[in-house]
Amino acid sequence: MLTLQSLSKHFGGVRAVDDISLTIKEGEIFGLIGPNGSGKSTTINLITGLYAPTTGTVTLDGYDLTAMAQHERTAMGVARTFQNIRLFGNLTVAQNLWVAQNGHEQRRAHFLPRWFKAGGEHGPDIEELLKFSRLHSKRDVQASALSFGEMRRLEMARALASNPRVLLLDEPAAGASQEDGQLLAERIRDVRDRGVTVLLIEHMMELVMGISDSIGVLNFGRKIAEGSPAEIQANQDVRAAYLGSKHKDEDLIHA
Amino acid sequence: MDGFTISVLTNIALFSFLAISAWILLIAGEISFGQQAYFAIGAYAAGIATAVWQWPFVAGIAFGTGFGAAVGALVAWPTIRLSGLHFAIATLAFAELVRASLNVFSYQRDIDGYATGPDGANGFRDIRWVYEAGIEPGAYLVIVAGCLAAVIALVALMARGRGMARLRIVGEDPILAAMQGLSVARTKIAAAGLAGGVAGMGGALYAHLATYIEPAQFSVMTGVHALAYGLIGGLGTVLGPILGVLIDIGLLESLRVFSGYRMIVFGGLVALVLILRPRGLLDERNVHRISAWLRR
């Protein structure tokens, strides 16, 4: 469904992403892993349009996204969260959601009158999302006043509010405890069960191995492996990239 | 009310237009040192409309407002893609350009045997519509306050709907806003047009009160003050910039307690507030707190 075809991004002489091809199937959770600096975040930024690729294409269901602006890709059904949480801190929780929900209205003709119309935030979608994210009691709280975990949940809810077909999660477990990781895994499955395809970038190996249907591994901007969690765990190249070749098998499994 | 009180209140109301104008752009994430230019443009346009073209007062004010808005949006169109400091400097340059142009702008017509209209650095005399209609200062204060109330109501309506959130969004995180499908440039141009219109309306009302305007009245210091009002009053509500005006003109200037030290006290106050409350006294957090308290 989401296809990256020979995607590259060079910053000067640095090949942050080097000739990566991936296919993410509809309805799956795809884990993208790799050591620090292996090009995971750059890949997400290429998919969402924050960066323009040096070469290669990104297609969603056959539609070429490569030349599209960020908001057009959002409208096509690509949504994301950020590694360092990004929210509108001065807006309330509910406002953060309806901004995303109503984001695509700039192409509609009645653009200005909407400036003065209340509502939107009372749509059933938003209430449902607030419940889904366990933020219902916080709907009128300023986003910057939320706890770290609540901000993460709001970010995911915000991404879902744009009604995406594929959701890109950039290290959603960063800064989370072990138990939070468990909840997060359930939450990501819930998202998948809503019919949203998930591309998960993560360091917490347990999480990725536990919930991913397929996994891609990057190292130094190149794809070194792709397959099921079991295949990846058995892969020698992956072990070498992550742990250095001299480590034993158990280390990867328990990491 | 005595004449002094009326003139202080009218001054507060007129400066509030300018302060709200700068505040709107602050909300949209842009710092403008040049809103006094739109105040000047509104003043000249409205003055020309009523004094030279002999339009009725309401049409003159509307013309000044519309002209300010149009120029505001027009200037924003090429400059809004500049970011932060570059935009701020562009506004400063534009304001000085307007002032320098008004210094050489002459457009006079013979009205009742007198050459009427702007005459470059000599200023623009006899904007007499209000005076000739016999409107007392007290009544004019009501007109100015009414126009200000209309502006506040418009912004409040935007705050209830989506408009204000739009401005805040592009102001806070343009990248995220763009990802959500908001056109950052278009929103900022709309904000600049709105800000230009509000300043233009203030200028139009000012010209008819003063009856005489000259380019030197619209100096950079006026614009810097306008910006400071929003910063000390707060970015959380449209009442913030008005609070700033009240503090400066209502307390510091009018009470005369600080007499010669006014600017020192005001400057110190701005610095203090910026350190202690970077988004002003009525910042978003306080506004949320107050509105939650009021709802109880």
What share of the residues of chain B lie within helices?
A: over 70%
Strand/helix succession of chain B: HHHHEEHHHHHHHHH
> Which structural class matches the secondary elements of chain B?
mainly alpha
Task: Estimate nothing, just give the exact number of structural domains of chain B.
Answer: 1
Strand order of the largest sheet of chain A: 6-7-8-3-9-10
* Unreliable parts of chain A: 104-113, 118-124
Q: Please report the distance between the alpha carbons of the first and last residues of chain A.
A: 31 Å
Q: Work out the strand percent of chain B.
A: under 5%
- DSSP helical segment count of chain B: 13
Radius of gyration of chain B: 19 Å
> Biggest interface between protein chains, with counts per chain?
A-B, 38 and 27 residues
The best one-word shape of chain B is globular
In short:
The complex is a heterodimer of chains A (255) and B (296). Chain A is α/β, with parallel strands linked by helices. Chain A has helices at residues 40-48, 70-76, 93-101, 124-132, 148-161, 178-193, 205-211, 229-234, 236-243, 249-254; strands at residues 2-11, 14-24, 29-33, 55-60, 63-64, 78-80, 166-170, 197-201, 214-219, 222-227.
What does this structure look like?
- The complex is a heterodimer of chains A (255) and B (296).
- Chain A has 255 residues and is an alpha/beta fold.
- Chain A folds into two domains: 1-77 and 165-175 and 195-255, P-loop containing nucleotide triphosphate hydrolases (Rossmann fold, 3-Layer(aba) Sandwich), CATH 3.40.50; 86-163, no CATH class.
- Chain A contains ten helices and ten strands.
- Chain A has a six-stranded mixed β-sheet, with helices on both faces. Chain A has a four-stranded antiparallel β-sheet with strand order 2-1-4-5, covered by helices on one side.
- In chain A, a hairpin with a 2-residue loop joins strand 1 (2-11) and strand 2 (14-24).
- Mean pLDDT of chain A is 84; it is low at 104-113 and 118-124.
- With 296 residues, chain B is mostly helical.
- Chain B has one domain.
- Chain B has 13 helices and two strands; from the N terminus they run ααααββααααααααα.
- Chain B has helices at 3-27, 35-52, 57-79, 85-104, 129-132, 137-160, 163-172, 174-179, 184-210, 220-233, 239-253, 262-276, 284-295, and strands at residues 109-111, 114-116.
- In chain B, strands 1-2 form a two-stranded antiparallel ribbon.
- In chain B, a hairpin with a 2-residue loop joins strand 1 and strand 2 (114-116).
- In chain B, helix 1 runs antiparallel to helix 9 and helix 3 (57-79) packs antiparallel against helix 9.
- The longest helix of chain B has 27 residues, at 184-210.
- Chain B is globular, with a radius of gyration of 19 Å.
- The two termini of chain B are 36 Å apart.
- The model of chain B has no long low-confidence stretch (mean pLDDT 92).
- Chain A binds chain B through residues 48, 50, 69-71, 74-75, 80, 86-92, 95, 98-100, 102-106, 112, 114-120, 140-142, 144-145, 162, and chain B through 157-158, 160-163, 165-166, 168-169, 172-173, 175-183, 186, 190, 284-285, 288, 292.
- Chain B: It is found in: Cell membrane.
- Chain B: This is Branched-chain amino acid transport system permease protein.
- Chain B: It is a multi-pass membrane protein.
- Chain B: The chain crosses the membrane at residues 6-26, 38-55, 61-80, 138-159, 189-207, 227-247, 259-276.
- Chain B: GO terms for molecular function: branched-chain amino acid transmembrane transporter activity.
